[in-house]
Amino acid sequence: MGQKMDDLSRIPVSHCPKVFVQRDYSNGTQLCFQNKFPQDLDGKIDAATFQETISTLNRMYLEAETLNSKTYCESCMACLTAYLSYICFDTHYEKMLKKIRHYIDEQNQNVYVPRGLMLIDPVERGLRVLEICVLNDSTGGR
After folding, report:
1. H or E element in which residue 102 lies
2. Helix, strand or coil for residue 84?
3. What are 97-121's pLDDT values in tens digits?
4. Which pTM does this prediction carry?
5. 3-state secondary structure 24-60
6. E-only strand ranges, 10-140
7. Cβ atoms of residues 31 and 23 within 8 Å
8. Closest by CA position to 109, among listed 23, 1, 35
C-alpha cells in the first residue's frame, strides 16, 4: 500500500483541469461541502459514488468539530500546561484530519484515480473547497 500511495503523490496535478466543490454555508459556518453533483464530472463518475464520498467527508468533519467531554478535557489540560501538552499529543481535531486524509487517499486509490480523477485534501486549500483534478480529460476540454 505504501508504494501505491507514493505513486499517487507523484501525479502532476498543477496543470490539469479542476472541478471545485464549494462549502455549504446553509447551516452556518459548520464545515460542510455541497452535495450537489457537478456537471463537469458527468460521465467520469456516477453521482451516487460522488455523493457518498461527500456525505462521508461531511460526517467526518462534523465529528471533528463536535465538542464532547474528551475535547473539553483536552482544552483544560492545555490551559493547565500553558499549551505545552499539545507537544505531546494530537488533539481530537488533528486526529480527525489525519483520518480524513487517509480516507481521501483511500478513495483516490480505489475509486477516483482509476476513473481519471483525483481528490485534493481540502486542508491544502484552507478548507475552503474540495478540489477534484481531472487527470485525463476525455471530453476534449469542454
Report:
1. helix 92-107
2. coil
3. 999 999 999 999 999 999 999 999 9
4. 0.83
5. CCCCCCCCCECCCCCHHHCCCCCHHHHHHHHHHHHHH
6. 18-22, 117-120, 129-134
7. yes
8. 1
